[in-house]
Amino acid sequence: MPLPRHLLGIEGLSAADITAFLDEAEQWIAFNRQSRKQDDRLRGLTQFNVFFENSTRTLFSFEVAGKRLGAQVANFHTAGSSVHKGETLIDTALTLNAMRPDVMVIRHSETGAPGQVAEVVDCAVINAGDGTNEHPTQALLDALTIRRRKGRIEGLKVAICGDIRHSRVAGSNIRSLTALGAEVRLVGPETLLRREGVPALPSYTALEDGLVGADVVMMLRIQRERMEEALSGTLGDYHSRYGLTRERLKLAAPDAIVMHPGPMNRGVEIDSDVADDPERSAIQEQVELGVAVRMACLDLLTRERRGG
Ligand code: CP
Fold it and tell me: Is the C-beta atom of 60 inside 6 A of ligand 1?
């Protein structure tokens, strides 16, 4: 794979590109399970994590990933910043760029924000989630989790269930898993199923129908903060039609794994006994592999400026 300058989305990446990220990430899994976890390949480099939206997993794992590779990591949060005095995204980016980072990791509520920043800064840019559009490192860690649990991705039946419309995780996973040869199907209420700019896929409005024979069941969070009128009824109604219960999981393949990018709405889209089932749930493994994937991304995206 030619060394990428930015990681703005899965769109535009080939199966070989995606696989190259996954292969690079594999080495960091065993490394991260050691008690001493210090590499120095990013020593002297500066990583800015620039988050305009809240995050636990993505922000913290990028910080941990950068530090384990030896980078100097600084986190920018909008709370307490001049964004609240009206400073624009681009002016904020130019200001941070003047401090000469080598890589910026950006999360923003607007589709395309990381791409806009990439056009005006001198460093590598990684999209940590832009609006409802893409969350590429989440898709990479999800693909790595599936590959490790199932030994392959090609030919697997993957049901992506819930709020497809507002989910950037769905946006990136649809692109990534279809590129890698999985049979992806979408499951959710009619009003939450539609997405533009992704391949047309088999869709189901009844969870029971969409789960039949699935090898991977990927549940998504209901994103109340991004909705206007798309969800009618209460969260209790939603659970009764679309919540993943142990009974419903029996419709999937007997060895199906359950995934969720987090944060979970327990008792809404997923029941706790499914989410916490050590045999079926891969949710904590997703979090663990997120660090390895982000180490691989930071390494690959800074390799050229480190002299290859
Ligand atoms: N999966 C994910 O993006 O979680 P955070 O919002 O906590 O980063």
Answer: no
